[in-house]
Amino acid sequence: MTNKSWTNLCNVRSGTTVAGKWHHNQYVIKKKLGSGANGIVYLAEGKQGYTALKMSGDSMSIISEVNVLKAFEKVQGSVLGPSLLDVDDWDRGRGQTIPFYVMEYIHGPNLLSFIREKGSSWSGVMIIQLLHHLGEMHRLGWIFCDLKPENLIVAANPSRIRCIDVGGTTKQGRAVKEFTEFFDRGYWGLGSRKAEPSYDIFAAAMVMINLFYPNRFPKNGDGLSQLKAKIQEVPELFHYRDILEKALTGQYVTAEQMRKEMLAKMSRTAIKSSNAKQKRRKKRGSLAETAAVIFVTSFLYGLYIYLFLL
After folding, report:
1. Beta strand 170-171 with 152-155: parallel, antiparallel or unpaired?
2. Are 17 and 28 in contact (CB under 8 A)?
3. Do both 129 and 248 map to the same domain?
4. Are residues 145 and 192 in the same domain?
5. Is the whole-model pTM more than 0.90?
6. Strand 152-155 with 17-19, pairing
């Protein structure tokens, strides 16, 4: 089936009812949420409330993505991807059958919008969360591949990074099937398009760079030299330059290695900031006041780690 034909087949109007052929669940289409190389995602309403429904003219693509979502469910404590709710076929009539699956609808701003609203200080926190989830995926043999801020939503209470598109996710060792140039190490001349942890780690570093260069930029000359220069131009990125450069040049074997180094860097920065505040207060206040400051700072930092970094 050509791209144009499946696109026409999967284009449906708001208010259309999609009825499952096998499970008999019904979903009322509300609006289109997005489309990609192999399918269209709609906001739909069913018996479980609002959901995200993806349909495609490629049944193998649906099967592959469903397998990824099932793999996510095996990762204890990881909530990167949406929960899988239903898999079925929709008989549109006239011999037209469309495979689809239904997943949890994750509501929230995408990562770029979240950072724009909350401030750049959240960048490191979000990347650390992302690396944790990537590490769990890699442990199960899956590589995300098409990693970019548009595919990442920040759900609230507490703020947690979530993925809304697993279409590019590939079994480790295979060729990358979907990518976006800015986040692709092959585009920058810094590695192959083989699905392996270092491919995602490179992309995670590029996601962080993208948070400070929201309009992105094309490759111009030597890729690594250009990226190093961009990192040096932004103080927040320069703070993590050693870590980012190691990620860009494939020096991390696992996402957990990068996550631990970022966490350690962030912890040292927080401690230095706390010590500086204590010294300033010590000049003005009593020993009791200083002890209170230390207690409150330690409590808040511990709470910060628990809510956002684990």
Report:
1. unpaired
2. yes
3. yes
4. yes
5. no
6. unpaired
3-state secondary structure of 303: helix
Q: How far is residue 20's CA from residue 61's CA, in Å, rounded to a whole number?
A: 18
> Residue-wise pLDDT tens for the chain (310 aa)?
445 566 777 889 999 999 999 999 999 999 999 887 778 999 999 999 999 999 998 899 899 999 989 887 876 555 678 899 999 999 988 888 999 999 999 999 999 999 999 999 999 999 999 999 999 899 989 999 999 999 999 998 888 999 888 888 999 999 998 999 999 999 999 999 999 999 999 999 999 999 999 999 999 999 999 999 999 999 999 999 999 999 999 999 999 999 999 999 998 887 876 666 666 666 565 555 554 444 444 444 554 544 444 4
Q: Are 89 and 53 in contact (CB under 8 A)?
A: no
Q: Are residues 94 and 187 in the same domain?
A: no
Would strands 84-93 and 96-104 be described as parallel, antiparallel, or unpaired?
antiparallel
11/90 same-domain check: yes
Q: Active-site residues: which are they? A: 146
- The parent domain of residue 291 ranges over 266-309
Q: Nearest CA to 309 among 188, 178, 176, 159? A: 159
Tokens of 110: 């995408």
Q: Which position has the token pair 């706390």?
A: 274
Cβ(62)–Cβ(56) below 8 Å: yes
